[in-house]
Amino acid sequence: MHRFLYFSAAIICGFSILTAFRPALQEDGAKPESAQCLVDSIGSAEPMRSALLGVLAVKGDCDTILSYNPYNKLLPASNTKLITTGIAMLQLGPDWQFTTTLQSNSSICNGELNGDLYIVGGGDPTIGANYDGTPKLEETFTQWKAILDSLGVKKINGKVIGDGRYFEGDPIPDSWAIFDMGYDYFGACEALNVYQNTIRIKIPGGAAPDQILSGPISTKPELPWLNVESEAVTTRGLGNKLYAIPGILRPCAYVKGTLGVKHKAAYLKITNNFPAYTCAQLFHNFLVNNGFEISDGYADVGPLGNVRTDLNNPHQGPDAQTGMAVLGSTRSVPLKQIITDCNRDSDNFYAETLLRTVGKNVLGAADYKTCKAGRDTMFRRLGLELRNGCNLVDGSGLSRENNVSPDFFVRFLKAMSKTPVFPHYLESLPQPGKGTLEFRLKSEPDSLKQRVFMKSGSMGGVVCFSGYILPQDGNPENTIIFSIMTNNVSGPASHVYKLLESIIARLAREN
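User: That's the sequence. What structure does it adopt?
Assistant: Structure tokens below.
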């Protein structure tokens, strides 16, 4: 009898524990539990109970339909891009375009430019970018060559110089982890960019274990000035733990880690810390291959304002020219396309460029301190009081010094919904089944997924979703604006995603 009672008690306790770890199942015909009850049950069980969870969802102007620690300031990760792209759209307009100009102070006579040709960047992040609808690099170079053709130039008695002086200050915030530079998501931007400021490195495999992978190592684009050194070694099998660290002050990169011998080759992408120099080299080569004569090679304008021909001696060279005549210019695709690519692909590089452009446009400078002040100016324009709910130091969300509350995200998204640019802004946001949301809400019907517009954000221990859920009745006043943020979550991210997706799906079904 005692054993029977103990056994019965164990079954009851076990059932109670299981139900505490997941939303309660509904009996057929029973009314589903509300979104608020669902969030309460998720927040009271692991893994959320020992983590940080903040949720807010509102409908219309004032109806709060879901709230759970809405004022907690949390790491937003790539949800930061919602703010960056929103203020850029508002300040610059959906049809705004970046401009790149060719400039010189030299005369043109008998088909010869008697001096240096400057490629003056205006921050355009799309030069050579790999997005549908964005011109390929050769197309852009063809446009630049057409400017010279229209002036009859066939020979340059000087250098082709990449000029990124339009953006002041360091290209990255102080709070970014330098180790991240070994990855293509790093996002450092300057005023003259090319190939999203990344370099692709090809490392050939080894024939036997415990060999140094020393070459021949190649890069794309081909950069004769970049010195790539390898300390990586081969191991047995198929493992790949290679990484690369680019030089900050010198044109070099170091490949480290291990690669299994079954790999014939491996590829890495790293940050290019010399994009203006690279752009000048590539355009110089393009012109030479198209019959131009260029007497003095290529160079860039260094941080000290000098013309650098040798990156290993960065402080040598004459002062760069100022006040030059504009020979011609080209423009990027419209901002609405850039913002769409930024949000749907969660492009850190694009986001940082947009933030620095807003800082330059609003307050006249692109250093990160000014960019922060420019962003606060845009918040005031939207009628937002910070009220300790937002502190951002970058535009992409890569910094771990960012913190934003769900309350602030909802207030920002609500304010954006009342602006003239909102249709373009909404259209730029990812939807389940597309882009970075390809695998989100996978089991839900298309009729539900088509009403959800949101941005994801993730990094170690962080998963967030913020955005809009359009109503089934088509009445804009019934649109749900939401932000769901988690920090310090242990365990597999896949489980966290399922929990947060269940909240979003429940909100959508109630709308």
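The first helix runs from residue 2 to 20.
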